[in-house]
Amino acid sequence: MFRSGAARGVLRSLNTTSQPAFRAVNAPLRTQFKSQLCTVARRPQTLAAVKPVSILAFQSKRAASDVKSTLDKIDIKHEAEVAKDKLKAVPELVSSASSIHPVLGEVGLKEEPHETEMLGGVKHDLAVIRDTFSLENVPREAYLIGLAGLLPYVATSLSTFYCAWEIQHSHAHGTGLLLSDKTAEALLHVLEPLQVGYGAMIISFLGAIHWGLEFAKFGGTHGYSRYLTGVLATGLAWPTTLLPVETALISQFLLFTFLYYNDSRATKRGWAPAWYGVYRFVLTFIVGSAIVVSLIGRGQVQEHVSRPSGTAERIQKLRDSQFEQLEEEEGARRKYLASADEEDEEEAEEDDE
What we know:
Oligomer: single chain
Helix content: over 70%
Structural class: mainly alpha
Largest sheet: none
């Protein structure tokens, strides 16, 4: 009975229609005992059974969207009121580049006009210099007293340059304008130790400021790192007074620059007031310019003035004089001993007679 063709067709149709979903879901888990021909024959029937499921999902999704669309109703009255308002023209916000802004947030920003003048860069630099030297945040007392403290240093520098000019003018025209060449040279030698000594004193004072900040516990206590800064400045400034004038001025220029770098770092770390870095820049700039003026003036008359003996040369002369004095004393002692021996010999001869 089951071997007839009609029976086999009925059983096959019942098998394919009763378990389409189960076979579609558990297809990878089934054991492959059946032939590939049966599998190929059943694929269209399986797809036909799965198709109504997708249609139901689509219909449910559409129904949900229809429910949502009912919530987003257009308010026609409000739209009509908004339509009555006219857009206001703002010509200031329109430029040649306003239509190419990639970000909507940038629309409406006012464009800064580009500098078209030839001296635009020079004006910018002058504005930066003016802002730097304004020193609005610096206490007025510290600013005025600091500038007053530099007046002796600047005065010695300008006097050195003037004496050098007088010496050069005297050698070029035979006579000076207000001073003779000898008077100008003598005054130049007097100004040299004054400028070097005052510069060493300023360097020592700049180092001592860090001791005061440590005593006041400004920015906290930092111990040896702050105290060593003050000691180092004094220890390096004092030997410059023993050097020749040109070497001493160059050494002090380097020391002033190093101390400014150290003070600017202290300001950034919070070890000094916020205005101290700019304040030190102005003072260092003035002192450095004064040193450069002195070196230029001395360089112009280096061949026309005699080189004064520095402290080191004076110490060497003192040692030479002491050595010569010792030699003289040794020679006198030898002469005395020689004369004493001669007297003893003469007395011995007289005793023998």
